[in-house]
Automatic annotation (TrEMBL):
Compositionally biased spans, kind Polar residues: 820-831, 1141-1150
Biased composition (Low complexity): 1130-1140
Annotated protein name in UniProt: ubiquitinyl hydrolase 1
Residue span of region Disordered: 111-216, 797-831, 1130-1150
GO biological process: protein deubiquitination
Organism: Cyprinus carpio
Top-level taxonomic group: Eukaryota
Amino acid sequence: ALPKCSFVCVDLFLDWKQNAHEVIVRLNCEDAGVLRVEDIDYAFSDSACHIRLPDGREWSCNLHEEIEASCSKLLYKEKTNVLQLVMHKKIPLNTWPTFAKKTEIVNILGENGSNHHRSTTGQSEKSAEIIEKMPVTSAEQKRGKPDRGSKRGMKGKQVEVTEGTGVKVAEIKSNDKADPISEPSAKRTTRPSRNTKETPIAPCSIKDSQSKPAVDGKTHVLAGSSGASSTNPEPMVNLKFVKNDSYEKGTDLMVVNVYMKELCRETSRVLFREQDFTLIFQTSDPNFLRLHPDCGPNTVFKWQVKLRNLIQPDQSSYAFTPSRIDISLKKRHSQRWGGLEAPATQGLKPVNSTVLELGNAPKGAQHGPKPTCMVQPMTHTPPAGSERAEEVEEKKVCLPGFTGLVNLGNTCFMNSVIQSLSNTRELRDYFHDRGFESEINCNNPLGTGGRLAISFAVLLRALWKGTHHAFQPSKLKAIVASKASQFTGYAQHDAQEFMAFLLDGLHEDLNRIQNKPYTETVDSDGRQDEFVAEEAWQRHKMRNDSFIVDLFQGQYKSKLVCPVCSKVSITFDPFLYLPVPLPQKQKVLTVFYFAKDPHKKPVKFLVSVSKVNSSTTEVLESISRSVRNKPENLRLAEVVKNRFHRIFSPSQSLDMVTSSELLFCFEVLSKDLAKERVVLLKVQQRPQVPSIPITKCAGCMKPPASDDEKLKRCTRCYRVGYCNQACQKNHWPNHKTMCRPSVENIGLPFLISVPESRLTYTRLTQLLEAYSRYSVNVFQPPFQSGRMSPEASLSRVDLSVSECQEQEEEPSSAGEVESQAEQGDCGTTPQKETVSVISAAGGDTLSSDSGCCELAIKPEAVVTGYQQPSESATGSTSQFYITLLDSSQKEDRKLEDKGDAVLELPDDCTLELVWKNNEKQKEYVLVRSKELEFDEDPGSATETSRAGHFTLEQCLNLFTKPEVLAPEEAWYCPKCQQHREASKQLLLWRLPNVLIIQLKRFSFRSFIWRDKINDMVDFPVRNLDLSKFCIGHKGDIQQPPIYDLYAVINHYGGMIGGHYTAYARLPSDKNSQRSDVGWRLFDDSTVTTVEESQVVTRYAYVLFYRRRNSPVERPSHFLGPLGAESSAATGSAASQVSSAPSHVTTAVSS
């Protein structure tokens, strides 16, 4: 065993040095002669070393930092007669300022590393006297194998250095007491101040000199040296706990996620060894530094974890992210660990220890290492009657309500729930004034015999006493796990599930009903809802009557309707919390709205719809609210390549429609308003002559002989050109099946609706011209005198009938090509055959006729498809003509201008507005597509930001919205006597004093997989009015159900590796709008103040609201026994609480 005090024998100590992993101390053994290591008694512990030579001389030292005793060794250099103590640092790469503990003197070395002594008789005698008085261990007692692996507290006497004039003075000082106000979560290791002076008790004769040990090849000045200035190393803080999560990735890897922000990556690192790893880091995170006073960005922190099993250090790795460090440990053996840290072998308490034992734990015990194994966490209970521990516990270390909860190992879900419930005003007061003791039900088989209620009371009082920075909820967790096996161990769980079980367990422990009677479900059977609801509530209270029910439970109305027989079933059921669904993920669609008045400019709307299961109805309803029109009077269409791609039906899905697609919404005239049949017409635009250039003859495939010669286009399709009529006739057999109007659309299409009585050519012209100008630019060039008129540009070419008969039967004009091709009339040859072409660029028009030569031919006779301009009502020439497309939209028929005569058009037909851009005509126009002219809808300005941004009101609307049950949830209809997929609707009937709302962020995609919805839900902090959602108690007009928020549970991350925190405030007893303690952020053991504006975030998961002006009466203290059977148990429970330490049981007045 090592001696209780340590002292440096000046004659033995030579020097010391260190490198990244080892500290090496050299002892001079010249006077001992030749030595053998087996003759030397030596021992190493984690914090000290001791050497005894065969001649009886001893050397021992309390080390400045901890070492690995099992890896340390003693070497003997025979040539130099020097002993070397090679001690492995427990924290590698940690530079020791001195190897002696705190201000304990080791030896003062000269600059050359040799010892210097000042022989003073008086001093030597005193030194010898001190050595004689020191307890030493005989060589015979140390001959056995030394106890190297045991860690011993070297709480003996320390030798401190005091400055004198040219002399270093050693002092032996008792160090029996530890610092009572040291931070329990971190052990700081710093160099002692050189300005500290104390009166020496026993000076030693040591010459004033400097000590400069070599560290990694460099020379550093030791603590206590004088003469030269020394550079103070950065302080090192040993952390006992760092917020982390761990999980096993298969059987080969253990992954540790350490949550730390604003790390200095240049100085931070992770060191791996077979049985542990060490995290060394620097951080500038203000929240983390606030937990460690006197620490700053330059402070070096270290956290070491002893592992449950061996790893392969060379194959382990780590990586930095902005908010955490991901550490991957490669297991040496492929197996399940069941936890990260090695299980504690000492200090384990029995699982069935009393609930109040936690209150006796000293403050330092509340910050033990975070366990992840399936064992009870370590707690260190001080000896009975320890006055110092009581003094520490009684001391106020923080304000009431600012005590955190220690993360026992992935228990952030539990901590967030407890902190939220501890700020529930009525619940806090109920347990603080000990009114719950009279209601403990020890005979309820569904409860814990009162153990959960008592443990919760102890925990609640500890949170509001202010004597803990952080408290361990170990006992509460153990009790919960004893009733619900899913909470055994330290895996992550859902906070809402734990909250529901905790409140239900408290309810059963405090249930005022000793013997629960049998009750049946109350159905309406046609009775009024008020009577049915009250009867159902009273029946519920016959079995469940507790303060938890009074405070948290409400009642909703459930309505089921059979889809076959229309049987209606109405029941009233209690609820503890409201699980409200979130709207599905959104996408923003751009929709251009066209009013039925063509003179109103289109309006651009941004509409948010669900990404899945969205329909046309969602878009139409959204736009109808903005334009104040009925959705049935709107039509939604998709436009692709300047034409309609599809017209959506109201129930058609929009799941495949992306945000980049072009959608038009048209207002149509309703039949009810028109009082007659309404014709709906689709209109698309195209030029008469397409913009496709013609570079060679389609018949002979030759280009024009010169630039002056122009190819002549086919007057039917305008898509091909010919050198002359002969080329056209030769090419006609191949071309006739493809000769149809151009499909080159310009501008944008639109829908028009016209009453049947006003469906005239004049009205169509007006509507088409008005709508088209929003998407095309039309110019009418001035008439040029040099340009020939259509009549002057025509010439004749005669062909004999025999020549025509030799040709394959051809139509008399290009306008008749398609009709003959469709009729297949090959047996009849007309007496006169005419083929007409029109020049694409100023060429002549050729026409053949077997009859006499005419000098002038009317344009409509030779230029097929060209309607001679007609005068409109205003006297101007029309710039376009209208054609009617067939159902295949391939063949068209030109509409005859009948002025104001009613046209007969089929329903849902398609019209083409054909712009007259043939420049060889007398009146032609230039037409080009342009960007759609529109106005922005001011209400859609923020629609993009609202995508993925919902309100609590929307969620409540979804909660009360009727839904059809899934097949696996089918309802058994008592009338049909079969299971039916009935329609179900939930409505709020009775609202509680404390309303808990769960935002259902986790959606099940499959049986084994579910997603998290991270969308923002905006919820009110004040004035949540549920009047429109609550259909019961309508007569209570003076006290509407208005709530104020007082707590929020947040969830960060995804399904794996998430983290829970909580925001909470303590509402005033009389006024829930005021706070006795303001908003705080509870992040496990960390509690910080926050502003109210910071509470509403996208990470909110569970909301806690308190109703205004709705007090809940609490039972008086000790109302009396609940019965003969429970009186003894109640008294026992009360005595347990009464015997709890004062720091736990004393109520805190806020």
